[in-house]
Sequence to fold (131 residues):
Amino acid sequence: MADISEVYQTGDWAKEKHVPSIDAPASAKKGEQITVTVSIGKGIAHPNTTEHHISWIELYFLPKGEKFAVRLAKAEFSAHGESAAGPNMSTVYTTPSAVFSFKTDKPGTLMASSYCNIHGLWKNSAELEIA
Fold:
């Protein structure tokens, strides 16, 4: 039986166009608003076509010492050039990038995941210190 962790792929976002890039401060103060930008294709552009696109990005936070992660948000991308006239006939294409904000009193790990309709699930993580 397969396990979902086996199908998540990862790599260096600067060299692999599917890996979520997490732009967040390395540290923040307790209760301070933390802004995180997660994008796909930051190092190498990802195609955003009807045939090949990023469908969604999710951001989670796992506070240090806790067992369960908190899902902070999910962004879905719906415009990939599809049109009643046919594939890639629209002039509207979404960019797979989203800005999320949250507060925490604990350090922990930011975890982003994304889904490419052709190449599946991808993940990345970044540590966050709290002063």
About this structure: The longest strand covers residues 120-130. Residues 22 and 38 are 5 Å apart (CA to CA).
